[in-house]
Amino acid sequence: MSTMTSTMFQPELEAMDPKRLRALQGERLAALISRLKASHSPYWAAKLAGLEPGSIGSIEDLQRLPLTIKAELRDNFPFGMLAVPLADTVRVHASSGTRGKPTVVAYTAADIDLFAVLNARAIVASGGRREDVLHIAYGYGLFTGGLGVHFGGERLGATVVPASGGNPGLQVQLMADLGADGLACTPSFALLLAERAEADGLKERIQKKLRYGVFGAEPWSEAFRSKLEQAWEGLEAHDIYGLTEVMGPGVAAECRESRGSLHIFDDHFYPEVLDERGEPVPPGMPGELVLTTLTKEALPVIRYRTGDVTSFVAGPCACGRTSRRIARLSGRVDDMLVIRGINVYPSEIEAVLLDDRRVSGHYQIILDRRDALLELVVRAELAAPVGPDERAELLQSLAAGLKERLRLRVGVLVGEPGELLRQETGKAKRVWEVTSADDPLAALIDTAS
Ligand SMILES: [Zn+2]
C-alpha cells in the first residue's frame, strides 16, 4: 500500500485495521440493541419485538433486523422514537417537511460531541487544518448544516466564521477581509459567491488564500465540480454527505485522494446498499443507501432507508483511511422524475448541461404539465454573451446531448448571463412545474418553441 499522503483528524480510528473495525461494529450493534431493548419506548419495543436480547453478536446479524423508513419518524412526531428521556437531550434539529410536519431529531450531549468530531474528520479530509479560517455559509438554525459543520470546525481548532446563508455581498467581503482558507456551503451557493466576488472585485484577493470547499446538502455532479473549480481558481471542491434523520452532515466525506467517492465513517454509521426488495446489491452496482447508527444515543435508527442512490467503491484508498467508500450520490430515489415512462435523475441533466463551457452553473428543470403528455424543458443560462449563430448551435448541441443521455426528447431554452434566479438560502431549487397558462414560465416555453 502507498504511504500515507494525507492527514487525518483521528488516524487511530480512521485507519483502523479492517478486522478490528468489523469486531468493533459488532460490539457496538450488540450494545445498541441492548440499550434499545431497555429503553421503555413503545416504538422500540414494537420495532424489536421477537428479537431475543443477546441474539445479536456480530455485524452480520444486522440483516435480521427490520428496515426503517422516513414515515416512521413522521408518524412518531415529535419524540416517539427517542431512546432516552427527553430530559437527557440537549438539542433538537429538524428537516423541513415537503408535506406536513417537519422531521424532528434530538441529540444527547454525547451525540453532539460525536457530531462535532465527525465533522472535524470531514473538514480535515477536505484539506482543512487547525490554523485555517473556515467560512461557513450553510444556514444556521433548525437545519443541521450550519451548526453541524460549525462545531466540527471548532473541534478541529479552526477559526470559524459563522456567516450562515444569504447576503452574498457581505459574505464575499468577509471572506476577503478575514482571509478564508476554507468555504463550507451548498455547491450552488459557492458558485453564486464566486460570481458575486467577481462582480465586487474581490475574487483575486479571496483566491490568494481559499484552498478548499466542504460542499453538500444538495446533489452535484462532477461537471458542477469543474464549474466550481473554474469559478474559484485554486480551490479544491469536496463533497460532504449527511442527512438529518441519521445525524446531519459528517456521515461521509470525500478525502483529497478519493475524488468521486466518499469515506463513510462506518465505526459510527454502518452502511448497506440494497435493492428495492431490501436485498444487498453486488459491489459496484447502484442501490439505496441504508444506514444504522451504531453509537447514537437519543435517536438511533436501524437500517434506515435514506432514499439516496449510491454504490460501494472497492479497494483501499491512497489516503490510508480504511472505512468503506460510497460513490458520490447520483440522486435521491424520490428525486427521480418519470417522464413519459422514462426514469430521469436531475443529476444526469446537470451532467450534460455543465459539460458545455458556454453554459453557466445555473439551470432549471421545468416539467410542463399543461397537456396530458408531460414535457421536459431544460432552461440553461449562458456563461458569457454569444452571437446568434453560436446560440443556435449551442441549443442544438444541448438538445442532442440530452436526447442521447436521457433517451428522451427535451425542450431547451438558453437565457442571457445572469438571467436565472439566484437562490441565497437553503438547497437550490432545480425542478419547477408548470401547470397553468398563467405561469410566467409557460409564456417563456411557448415563445421559445
Ligand atoms: Zn481516502
Architecture overview:
The chain is an alpha/beta fold. The chain folds into two domains: 1-330, ANL, N-terminal domain (Rossmann fold), CATH 3.40.50.12780; 336-448, ANL, C-terminal domain (GMP Synthetase, Chain A, domain 3). It is built from 13 helices and 21 strands. The chain has helices at 11-14, 18-37, 42-47, 70-75, 109-125, 144-156, 168-178, 187-199, 203-207, 222-231, 346-354, 388-406, 440-448, and strands at 89-95, 103-108, 133-136, 159-162, 182-185, 212-215, 236-243, 248-253, 261-264, 269-274, 287-293, 304-310, 312-313, 325-327, 331-332, 337-339, 342-344, 364-368, 375-381, 411-415, 431-434. Strands 4-3-5-6-7-8-9-14-13 form a nine-stranded mixed β-sheet, sandwiched between helices. A hairpin with a 6-residue loop joins strand 18 and strand 19 (375-381). It is globular, with a radius of gyration of 23 Å. The N and C termini lie far apart (57 Å). The structure holds zinc ion (ZN). Residues 255, 257-258, 263, 317, 319, 321 line the site of zinc ion.
Ligand roster: zinc ion
Secondary structure class reads alpha/beta
Query: What fraction of the residues are assigned to beta strands by DSSP?
Result: 15-25%
For the record, the CATH class of the largest domain is Alpha Beta
Shape: globular
Biggest sheet strand line-up: 4-3-5-6-7-8-9-14-13
Count of the separate structural domains: 2
Radius of gyration: 23 Å
* Count of DSSP-assigned helices: 13
Strand element count:
21
On the 0 to 100 scale, the average pLDDT is: 92
* Cα distance spanning the termini: 57 Å
CATH architectural category of the largest domain: 3-Layer(aba) Sandwich
Question: Runs with pLDDT <50, length 5+?
Answer: 1-5
CATH topology of the largest domain: Rossmann fold
Indicate the percent of residues in helices. 25-40%
Largest sheet: 9 strands, mixed
**Considering the protein shown, what is the CATH homologous superfamily of the largest domain?**
ANL, N-terminal domain
